[in-house]
Amino acid sequence: MIVNTETIDEFLDRRSADVEEAVRTAAETEILPRFRHLAEHEVDQKTGPHDLVTDADRNAELYLTGVLGALLPGSIVVGEEAVHADPAVYAALQGDAPVWIVDPVDGTRQFVHGDDGFCTLVALARRGELLASWIHAPARRQFATAVRGGGAFLDGERLHAGPPAAGRDLEVATSHPDFTTEDQKRALLALRTDGVAPRPCGSAGLEYLAVARGLLDATVFSWEAAWDHAAGLLLVEEAGGAHLTLTGEPFRITGGNALPFTTARDEATARRIQGLLTAR
């Protein structure tokens, strides 16, 4: 079993490429063959009509659970579908063992409707600290990676988010109205002000990638599910961005955050958005 951060660093030096290969294989064998070819019996609802799961989600997560657990003995996999089946699995984020955080198909609704705006998200964390992440948008042929202290990369090119251009509205992707309560909708109204251009988000993972690339200024999300945020948060951090909750603290993947929270391409933008949200 991995027993210290230095050993995990060594693991990442040796096996990051194997993790990437596993993510690519999951997409090639379980996700892409079903893209735009889903049969009716391969799509189910979880909590409602806007919360979908497909055979691609289930099978890709099962594959990644087996491969990632074998790559890092003693690690635990916290996957979206496993947590849906047994919420107690989520508690592993609070433990001492290394944890793989997996969203097999982030943007399942887009996937079901034949839109290419979906991705697979994998992050490695320990004791609440994000250590590495992998984001694969297979239909767009994009693969982003990050290692804490080692930078963020898209298809081998280093990412630098940089500050927004002066004099234009901030483009901010927010929690989709289908996934917000009435109280959260009212909170997000604070962004409807001069100098800010909010819009509903698509796949959270791809929105984080857009922030890391400097193509989107910020996100504001109102839910905590670690599989949606972990990989993207580290990618944005390593590209020079920042994330803040309503209390001005960084978002914690272990939970207990003051929501909604923002992730932005630089610290100043994060503080500007956080200030709007707390002034409501």
UniProtKB/TrEMBL annotation:
One of its GO terms (biological process) is inositol metabolic process. Mg(2+) binds at residues 80, 103, 106, 228. Its EC number is 3.1.3.25. It catalyses: a myo-inositol phosphate + H2O = myo-inositol + phosphate. The keyword S-adenosyl-L-methionine does not apply. Its cofactor is Mg(2+). Pfam families: Inositol_P. InterPro entries: Inositol_monoP_metal-BS, Inositol_monophosphatase-like, Inositol_monophosphatase_CS. The keyword Magnesium applies. Keywords: Hydrolase, Magnesium, Metal-binding. It comes from the Bacteria. One of its GO terms (molecular function) is inositol monophosphate 1-phosphatase activity. PANTHER family: INOSITOL MONOPHOSPHATASE, INOSITOL-1-MONOPHOSPHATASE-RELATED. This is inositol-phosphate phosphatase.
